[in-house]
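Notes, Module 5: Reading structure tokens.

Key idea: the token line is not a picture. It is a compressed description, and you learn to read it the same way you learned to read a sequence, by spotting repeated patterns. We will look at two proteins. The first is printed below with its tokens.
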Amino acid sequence: MAALSTATREVFIEGVRAVLETWPVLQIAVDNGFGGMYSKQKAEWMVDAVQQYFHDNADLQLYEVEDFLSEVMNNEFDTMVDDGSLPQVAEAVCQMFRQCQQGKLSEVREQINQLVKVKGSGRVKATPVKNPAGEEEESEEEEEDAAESMECEAETEGSSSVATAQKQQEPSSTQSPDEDGWTVVRRRK
């Protein structure tokens, strides 16, 4: 893709920033520190990296932009994007670049304004799942006690529990012993 003039390049940078700041996957990664303590700085760097990628490479295809974004998310935020948003984000950035190349800066600014409105309406948050009402969380001491009691039971029962479990398991019509003594489980038809 052809290089942009300085003024056009700045509009494109604003567009990339608007697209990335409204991308829920990136928002979650930044808000939850998936990129470490410098997650916000990495997100800002990503804006520059994307615009530089377009500046340095001619005739970029959509799949190349998707791959680039995916690689950055994986390397910098330890995040695999599998929510289906990657093609949409790549298409939005490619479309803005094409419009900037064609001198349609007013259209790009309008898209940026729409994205800023979306951004202002709220951010996506990853929240931990809470226990259902009435259930209390086990304290660490209770968990340790339970683990210790399981270890003690396992040590006292030893191999006799394994033999008992094998005796209780009777071969059904879907299981047949192999010549080596292994039980082969077959699918019911």
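Here is the second protein, with the sequence above and the tokens below, as before.
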Amino acid sequence: MVAPTLTTSRLRLRFWRDEDLEPFAALNADPRVMRHFRAPLTRDESDLMAARIRDRMSDQPFGLWAVEVPGTADFIGYVGLSVPGFTAHFTPCVEVGWRLAFDHWGRGYASEAARAAQAHAFSSLRMEEVVSFTVPANLRSIGVMERIGLTRLPADDFLHPSFPEGHPLRPHVLYRLSRAGWMAGKQG
């Protein structure tokens, strides 16, 4: 039950290759990309993260796909679906998420790839809901969430349990999209 390759008009979401590790480490070390995360990652931390992503994609029909722009860039980051590893009022759930290299921001790639991941979640896998979350200051990701149809109810916002009390990254906003909402958006 391996995650399939997904394609859009400009992108290919595929299984990871060994040659993705170096550009993945570069984007994980970039303070601009990692601004709203705990800290940039070392090469070892980045490689370990990629190994976990690959392992999960090997035994389930979804994951955090490596994203390429055919004919332009072999690897620009990841976009996809994952199951958060913490407990909150909205878990268990499936999150749609992304992390792209800075040089590829502002081109609509995150939104385009996330729409493909959502379509896979709702039509192929028949999931009932996807969520996405980030810190309130991450306006770029919030913009992607809104462009792909997710909506926020402030009562859903939460304190991320991976951060200690008082940490500036602990408050998070939560966005949701139901399968019915996705279907209604396709009709409109």
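Summary for the second protein:
- DSSP finds five helices and nine strands in the chain.
- Residues 6-187 form a domain with the Aminopeptidase fold (CATH 3.40.630.30).
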